[in-house]
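Reminder to self: keep the SMILES exactly as supplied, no canonicalising. Ligand is 2-acetamido-2-deoxy-beta-D-glucopyranose.
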Amino acid sequence: MGSCKLVICFLFFEMFWCWTEGLGVNWGTMAVRQLPPKTVVQMLQDNGIKKVKLFDADFNTMSALAGTDIEVMVAIPNDMLAIMTDYDAAKDWVKRNVTRYNWDGGVKIKYVAVGNEPFLSSYNGSFLNVTFPALQNIQNALIDAGFGDTIKATVPLNADVYNSPSVPSAGQFRTDISELMTQIVQFFNQNGAPFTVNIYPFLSLYADVHFPVDFAFFDGGSTPIVDGQIQYTNVFDANFDTLVSALKAVGLGNLPIIVGEVGWPTDGDINAKASYAERFYNGLLKRLAANQGTPLRPNTNIEVYLFGLIDEDAKSIAPGAFERHWGIFRYDGQPKFPMDLSGQGQNKLLVAAKNVQYLPQKWCVFNPNAKDLSKLGDNINYACTFSDCTSLGYGSTCSNLDTQGNASYAFNMYFQVQGQKELSCVFEGLAMITTQNYSQGTCDFIIQLASSPSLRTSPFVMFVLVLIVILFFQSEQL
Ligand SMILES: *[C@@H]1O[C@H](CO)[C@@H](O)[C@H](O)[C@H]1NC(C)=O
Ligand SMILES: *[C@@H]1O[C@H](CO)[C@@H](O)[C@H](O)[C@H]1NC(C)=O
Ligand SMILES: *[C@@H]1O[C@H](CO)[C@@H](O)[C@H](O)[C@H]1NC(C)=O
Ligand SMILES: *[C@@H]1O[C@H](CO)[C@@H](O)[C@H](O)[C@H]1NC(C)=O
Ligand SMILES: *[C@@H]1O[C@H](CO)[C@@H](O)[C@H](O)[C@H]1NC(C)=O
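Structure tokens returned for the bound complex:
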């Protein structure tokens, strides 16, 4: 019996290893105009990406993933956590969003993310009471539905759930939530679920002007942090090992850790630029491919999900203007900089999205014949409130435009996001439509995506169907 069990475990382990191999990406969908999910899935496949992490379990996204060999982490948004403290609701969620896709040729769901960074200090504790009960209910509902061995519930946590007064080896869970974190990690351990952490070297740099720039990357050059026998030369390792130490402090130093988000933005801040992103990913991907691990977990394969796949122009910019520029692809599925996802350092542009449908080649710009400029500021503000002007800020790709250039940029962003409706290029007579490309230098005046046909035709098709029915009944009555 004993040895038989061992073989099964080993087989299981092999399978597990097989499944977790390779790199994942975060596929967020907070963009006003989106690439069709099928186009995105094709793009994932063209680039050999076999794992995605979602922020919900949207039916259209899941349908596009069905039948592929892409492994999926589905998610329950924070605002649904309170509902999941009810076991029946959790069971229902699992039925609707997990069991539903469990057929041959369905979706390969591997994890359920319960919430997204629910313990961020900036949430003022709003999700402290609900996260753990929701996690327990979802994990138990997965077990009840027969997925106990194959699908695990985890909670993607921001790195501010732990800290260290000094060096990584002194890592511990944040004092205000240490008891809660201990219960959660014990629960992960009981269920064979991993700890999921989001690590952002960019944010270390963004938050602290004195942060040594080279320490954010993986190519040395900074003064190491000395921690006993260990010398840390990059903040990713130091951060990861602070977590390992925090886990060790509660007796679970070997709990599996996956990195739910890691990446570098390309616009919206002086340090958010393509050259830095290229440098960051180049270092990160090489070490991941070499299974280098970290000083406290050497020679291990770390499961990692890059953040993110595509730029999202509807994200909140409360954390910073860079928030809308995390994609390794632009809004339209064009690659931004060379990289090698296999970590061999053969950096070249990734395969772009195929058959992308754009709006016509028309831009909305400042009208140089406009007489009254007194309302220019107000109109720029209006345009930027309802579109994305984060590229205009200090240190960004369009920061060197003059006032009229600023106006043109803002008007165009609004016009594009509105689907180039003529009435969206008026701005009290200050704007005009042109077929001339106003892009200059690093500043791209974009043409937006045509909305996906399914979104467009379905209300129309419904309308026609209703009309046919009405006409049919009318002719019957005649
Ligand atoms: C789960 O499925 C339901 C029913 O299809 C859907 O309304 C809901 O949005 C899904 N949940 C998430 C988090 O996407
Ligand atoms: C948290 O509290 C601060 C200050 O009291 C407030 O400005 C902020 O809006 C709150 N955030 C949330 C998510 O409730
Ligand atoms: C969490 O629960 C405690 C005790 O039941 C309560 O005092 C506290 O107000 C709750 N906090 C939130 C954010 O709901
Ligand atoms: C252009 O817009 C940006 C962002 O709103 C602003 O910081 C900058 O001062 C503007 N430049 C000019 C010349 O008006
Ligand atoms: C506009 O010009 C820029 C730079 O010259 C170019 O990169 C971009 O592709 C052009 N846009 C369109 C829609 O042709």
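Points to follow up:
Residues 195 and 257 are 5 Å apart (CA to CA).
The radius of gyration is 25 Å.
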